[in-house]
Amino acid sequence: MSNQDDFFTPEEVDRQIDQVSRLREGERADAEVMAYLRSLYGIDTQQEQGMLDRIWSRIADAASPLQHNLPQKQERERVIAIQHQPALVSNLATHRRRTTFMQRLGMLAAVVFLVALVGSMAILFNSIRHNAGGPDSGGSKPHAIITTIPPTSTPRPTPKPTTKPVPLKVTSVDMSVVPGSIAGIPCGTFVTVTYKATIQVTPHGPGGTVQFGYTVNNGRSQNMASVTFAPGETSKTYAFTWSGALPVDHTFPEPGGIDVTSPNQLISPLVGPGGTCQ
């Protein structure tokens, strides 16, 4: 609150009035101000009191009908409850009669089911006893025939094994020579000796090139060669030859073979014609 508003508070006004009332008789202007303030606050007090009286009068007028109608409302509710009570009793009696009827009907159904069950069991036992005893005429007794039906199964297709490619690798080398023997051939005769190498690699391979060196003089020298495998191919044959006249000193032909250098290293056995020339 500002200083100007503090000047007009009730306490400040009363203090100003008291201060003015203590002034001397000669100060006419202050006396008139004091009289005006008193009349002004008196009028405001009367107006506020009258407004409060009217408010309380309206509240009393509005509350009087409510207090007068409350007993009547309670009486009407009690009468309505009494009127509805026979209907509730009637509904309860109807519900009880329905429940009793359903209980009796369920009990009757259970008795009928029990009688039917006992009767069927008695008929079944009588039939079993009659078949077991049989007549005394000595006839053959019937026997039950039990047939076993083997279970049938739906054949499932055999899954094909999934083969994964493996790296190319030489696993073995088989050597052969033609002719296998020179025995009986005259020395000086011109002959051709054919060496044949059968190279085996791992199955399901990706294919590739196998490099090797071959020799016809027992490994003292060799020539380089290679074969190419297709994907999945496992065997290749490579042939090489020696030609010449059979020497009298029997130095040729000599054993031959191959020496694999790629993709891995492998040395084949050495083979040559048997016997000697004459």
- Strand tally is 7
Name the helix and strand elements from N-terminus to C-terminus, one letter apiece: HHHEEEEEEE
Shape designation: elongated
Mean pLDDT: 78
User: Numbering strands along the chain, what is their spatial order in the largest sheet?
Assistant: 4-3-6-7
Task: Please mark out the parts with pLDDT under 50 across 5 or more consecutive residues, or reply none.
Answer: 135-139
Number of helices: 3
Please report which band the strand proportion falls in: under 5%, 5-15%, 15-25%, 25-35%, 35-45% or over 45%. 15-25%
Secondary-structure class: alpha+beta
Largest sheet: 4 strands, antiparallel
Roughly how many Å is the radius of gyration?
Answer: 67 Å
* Tally of separate domains: 2
Question: In which range does the helix fraction lie?
Answer: 40-55%
C-alpha end-to-end distance:
149 Å
Outline the structure in words.
The chain has 278 residues and is an alpha+beta fold. It has 2 domains: 1-132, no CATH class; 170-267, Sandwich (Immunoglobulin-like). It is built from 3 helices and 7 strands; from the N terminus they run αααβββββββ. The chain has helices at 3-7, 10-21, 28-133; strands at residues 170-178, 190-201, 208-215, 223-229, 235-245, 257-262, 266-267. The strands form 2 sheets. The chain has a 4-stranded antiparallel sheet, with no helix packed on it. A 3-stranded antiparallel sheet has the order 1-2-5, with no helix packed on it. Strand 3 (208-215) and strand 4 (223-229) form a beta hairpin. The radius of gyration is 67 Å and the shape is elongated. The termini are far apart. Mean pLDDT is 78; it is low at 135-139.
